[in-house]
Amino acid sequence: MQYYPVNLDIRHRSCLVVGGGQVGARTVGTLVKCGGRVTVVSPQATPGIVELADAGDIVLKQRPYRPSDLEGMFLVIGATDDEKLNRQIHADAEGRNLLCNIADRPKICNFILPAIFRRGDFTLAISTAGKSPAFAKYIRKRLEDEFGPEYGELLDLMGAIRLKLLAKAHEPEVHKPLFEALIREGLLSLVKNRDIDGIDALLEQVLGPGYTYHGLIPTDRPTEG
């Protein structure tokens, strides 16, 4: 099986999670964090799911699943331990051409969820094509030691530079060698070491006057621990 890698924008899109246990709770947390409008259907739910519902962050329907629950949904996640129910969810979703994932059942999914590692907006997704989620999680944990918060901070800086360059009506293709030069000349290492003077010197060298760290990144920006 060759999967097509993709990152979905689920902001303001309706997402259904069937199952209110620990697996469902983790899925709900990720969907909410990514801006999805989440509905959970399950007779029982973890305290965390109930808390999100009480806060108005999700909709919780504490009852068994119905096929009509799929109406208007963008994607559906089956997170139950009932094999018959999981297969029904899959069949119902397929009949409506919906994105559907059944937890730990890659054969009845039309997409699978990779192990995800984040540093701010820097995201690594590790997939084993559903063959070994445990190995994907193992690799993710190893990467946590290799990729520190400086990767997210570098992306914030690069994004701010890009916006400023675009405001000058330059063609985006012209910017490519500038970003390549910043990376090649060690901007990541300077960010990691919090060498603001060094960052400013490199920005001026590559981009010219008017580009400084504090001029691009708000001074009250929270740092990632």
Sum up the structure in keywords.
single chain; 225 residues; alpha/beta; Rossmann fold; Double Stranded RNA Binding Domain; 5-stranded parallel sheet; 7 strands; elongated
| Backbone structural class | alpha/beta
Our Rg estimate from Cα atoms comes to 22 Å
Main beta sheet:
5 strands, parallel
CATH top level class name of the largest domain: Alpha Beta
Describe the structure.
This protein is an alpha/beta fold. It folds into 3 domains: 1-113, 3-Layer(aba) Sandwich (Rossmann fold); 114-147, Double Stranded RNA Binding Domain; 150-216. The chain has 9 helices and 7 strands, in the order E-H-E-H-E-E-H-E-E-E-H-H-H-H-H-H. It has helices at residues 22-33, 47-54, 83-95, 133-146, 150-167, 172-184, 187-192, 196-207, 213-216, and strands at 14-18, 37-41, 59-61, 75-78, 99-102, 115-119, 122-126. The chain has a 5-stranded parallel β-sheet, sandwiched between helices. The chain has a two-stranded antiparallel sheet with strand order 6-7. The mean pLDDT is 92.
